[in-house]
Design goal:
globular, mainly beta
Length: about 140
């Protein structure tokens, strides 16, 4: 199972879809393999998402995400919760439509960032068909 970079331990991850259901080529594991060659590629449709279930409670400090330009999201909604609770909105991110790694600190300057689960919803894809392509997804934080 994929690991959450720098948070440590195996981290179960779920995604909204995979292009042509081809998990071998486009599956979620590719967001965490640190390869420049592989990616998660969603299928078409609005509001694709990723959820991360951390193996331990984490105080999240940063989110690192690298899209493929043209297949990014103008708006990402971050939600999180503790185990057994419902998701609560943390903040909105407004990534650029570029290929470079993007790092968000500001999203986590609030109290509600001690989490067992994090959900990232890609609300506004730059792709006409709503596809999202992510090469790297990293969560930095402190294990509690």
């Amino acid at each position: 199972s994929p690991s959450c970079p720098r948070v440590g331990g195996a981290c179960p991850c779920r995604v909204s879809s995979v292009l042509n259901r081809d998990v071998k080529q486009f599956g979620k594991k590719h967001m965490f393999d640190r390869s420049e060659e592989t990616c998660w590629n969603s299928d078409q449709g609005t509001c694709q998402w990723v959820t991360l279930d951390f193996p331990h409670t984490v105080k999240v400090s940063q989110l690192h995400i690298q899209f493929q330009g043209g297949f990014s999201s103008r708006l990402c909604t971050l939600e999180g919760c503790r185990a057994g609770e419902g998701l609560v909105k943390i903040s909105d991110l407004y990534p650029e439509d570029i290929n470079a790694m993007q790092i968000s600190f500001a999203a986590f300057q609030v109290e509600e960032t001690v989490l067992d689960k994090l959900k990232i919803t890609f609300e506004n894809s730059t792709d006409f068909f709503g596809r999202i392509v992510v090469y790297h997804l990293g969560v930095l934080g402190e294990r509690l």
